[in-house]
Fold:
Amino acid sequence: MTIWHQSGKGGQQTVEQAYADAGQPQHKVTEFIDDMAAAYAWADVVVCRSGALTVSEIAAAGLPALFVPFQHKDRQQYWNALPLEKAGAAKIFEQPQFTADAVATTLAGWDRKTLLEMAQHARAAAIPDATERVAKEVSLAAQV
Structure:
Protein backbone atom coordinates (compact mmCIF):
# COMPACT_ATOMS: atom_id res chain seq x y z
CA MET A 1 0.00 0.00 0.00
CA THR A 2 1.25 3.46 -0.89
CA ILE A 3 0.00 6.36 1.21
CA TRP A 4 -0.30 10.00 0.16
CA HIS A 5 -0.68 11.99 3.37
CA GLN A 6 -1.63 15.66 3.57
CA SER A 7 -0.03 16.84 6.80
CA GLY A 8 -1.11 20.47 6.95
CA LYS A 9 1.18 23.44 7.37
CA GLY A 10 4.26 22.65 9.43
CA GLY A 11 3.40 18.97 9.90
CA GLN A 12 5.40 17.37 7.11
CA GLN A 13 8.55 16.50 9.11
CA THR A 14 6.59 15.03 12.03
CA VAL A 15 4.47 12.87 9.73
CA GLU A 16 7.52 11.77 7.71
CA GLN A 17 9.20 10.70 10.96
CA ALA A 18 6.09 8.78 12.08
CA TYR A 19 6.10 6.80 8.83
CA ALA A 20 9.82 6.11 9.18
CA ASP A 21 9.33 4.97 12.79
CA ALA A 22 6.48 2.68 11.70
CA GLY A 23 8.59 1.17 8.94
CA GLN A 24 6.22 2.34 6.20
CA PRO A 25 8.52 2.97 3.22
CA GLN A 26 5.82 3.60 0.61
CA HIS A 27 4.50 7.03 1.41
CA LYS A 28 4.40 10.58 0.15
CA VAL A 29 3.83 13.43 2.58
CA THR A 30 2.90 16.93 1.47
CA GLU A 31 1.70 19.86 3.54
CA PHE A 32 -1.14 20.45 1.11
CA ILE A 33 -2.43 18.79 -2.04
CA ASP A 34 -2.63 21.41 -4.76
CA ASP A 35 -4.36 19.28 -7.40
CA MET A 36 -7.19 17.34 -5.74
CA ALA A 37 -8.43 15.99 -9.07
CA ALA A 38 -5.03 14.34 -9.60
CA ALA A 39 -5.02 13.05 -6.02
CA TYR A 40 -8.49 11.54 -6.41
CA ALA A 41 -7.47 9.97 -9.73
CA TRP A 42 -4.40 8.47 -8.01
CA ALA A 43 -6.30 7.08 -5.00
CA ASP A 44 -8.06 3.75 -4.59
CA VAL A 45 -9.55 4.81 -1.26
CA VAL A 46 -9.58 8.06 0.74
CA VAL A 47 -9.20 8.47 4.51
CA CYS A 48 -10.23 11.99 5.49
CA ARG A 49 -12.42 14.36 7.48
CA SER A 50 -15.95 14.79 6.20
CA GLY A 51 -16.61 18.42 5.45
CA ALA A 52 -19.52 18.95 3.05
CA LEU A 53 -17.38 19.79 0.02
CA THR A 54 -15.00 16.88 0.65
CA VAL A 55 -17.89 14.41 0.87
CA SER A 56 -19.37 15.82 -2.34
CA GLU A 57 -16.03 15.62 -4.15
CA ILE A 58 -15.48 12.01 -3.08
CA ALA A 59 -18.92 11.00 -4.30
CA ALA A 60 -18.37 12.80 -7.62
CA ALA A 61 -14.96 11.14 -7.99
CA GLY A 62 -16.53 7.77 -7.26
CA LEU A 63 -14.13 6.82 -4.49
CA PRO A 64 -14.59 4.60 -1.45
CA ALA A 65 -13.88 6.48 1.77
CA LEU A 66 -13.15 6.09 5.42
CA PHE A 67 -14.45 9.28 7.01
CA VAL A 68 -13.27 10.61 10.36
CA PRO A 69 -15.67 13.43 11.24
CA PHE A 70 -14.24 16.40 13.10
CA GLN A 71 -15.61 16.23 16.63
CA HIS A 72 -17.97 19.14 17.09
CA LYS A 73 -21.01 19.45 19.32
CA ASP A 74 -23.48 19.50 16.40
CA ARG A 75 -21.72 16.59 14.62
CA GLN A 76 -22.18 18.24 11.23
CA GLN A 77 -19.32 16.28 9.62
CA TYR A 78 -20.84 13.02 10.84
CA TRP A 79 -24.15 13.99 9.22
CA ASN A 80 -22.32 14.96 6.00
CA ALA A 81 -20.75 11.50 5.74
CA LEU A 82 -23.76 9.44 6.79
CA PRO A 83 -25.49 9.31 3.37
CA LEU A 84 -22.39 7.79 1.76
CA GLU A 85 -22.06 5.26 4.57
CA LYS A 86 -25.74 4.33 4.20
CA ALA A 87 -25.21 4.01 0.43
CA GLY A 88 -22.40 1.51 1.00
CA ALA A 89 -19.74 3.88 -0.31
CA ALA A 90 -17.97 4.68 2.95
CA LYS A 91 -17.33 3.83 6.57
CA ILE A 92 -17.43 6.38 9.37
CA PHE A 93 -14.97 6.22 12.25
CA GLU A 94 -15.69 8.66 15.06
CA GLN A 95 -12.44 10.12 16.43
CA PRO A 96 -12.26 7.75 19.45
CA GLN A 97 -12.60 4.72 17.10
CA PHE A 98 -9.91 6.00 14.75
CA THR A 99 -6.93 3.90 15.78
CA ALA A 100 -4.16 2.41 13.67
CA ASP A 101 -5.46 -1.10 14.36
CA ALA A 102 -9.05 -0.23 13.46
CA VAL A 103 -8.02 1.45 10.22
CA ALA A 104 -5.65 -1.38 9.27
CA THR A 105 -8.34 -3.99 9.95
CA THR A 106 -10.94 -2.09 7.94
CA LEU A 107 -8.68 -1.44 4.96
CA ALA A 108 -7.43 -5.04 4.97
CA GLY A 109 -11.05 -6.19 4.74
CA TRP A 110 -11.70 -4.13 1.62
CA ASP A 111 -10.64 -6.33 -1.28
CA ARG A 112 -10.68 -5.14 -4.91
CA LYS A 113 -14.29 -6.28 -5.44
CA THR A 114 -15.46 -4.42 -2.32
CA LEU A 115 -13.63 -1.25 -3.35
CA LEU A 116 -15.16 -1.36 -6.83
CA GLU A 117 -18.65 -1.84 -5.36
CA MET A 118 -18.09 1.04 -2.93
CA ALA A 119 -16.87 3.23 -5.81
CA GLN A 120 -20.04 2.44 -7.77
CA HIS A 121 -22.17 3.31 -4.73
CA ALA A 122 -20.27 6.59 -4.31
CA ARG A 123 -20.80 7.54 -7.94
CA ALA A 124 -24.50 6.66 -7.70
CA ALA A 125 -24.84 8.90 -4.62
CA ALA A 126 -23.24 11.89 -6.35
CA ILE A 127 -25.37 14.78 -7.55
CA PRO A 128 -23.25 16.20 -10.38
CA ASP A 129 -25.87 18.77 -11.38
CA ALA A 130 -26.38 20.09 -7.84
CA THR A 131 -25.39 23.64 -8.83
CA GLU A 132 -27.99 23.74 -11.59
CA ARG A 133 -30.66 22.28 -9.30
CA VAL A 134 -30.03 24.87 -6.60
CA ALA A 135 -29.94 27.71 -9.14
CA LYS A 136 -33.25 26.54 -10.59
CA GLU A 137 -34.89 26.39 -7.14
CA VAL A 138 -33.57 29.84 -6.21
CA SER A 139 -34.82 31.21 -9.52
CA LEU A 140 -38.25 29.67 -8.97
CA ALA A 141 -38.40 31.00 -5.41
CA ALA A 142 -37.45 34.49 -6.61
CA GLN A 143 -40.40 34.49 -9.02
CA VAL A 144 -42.91 33.89 -6.24
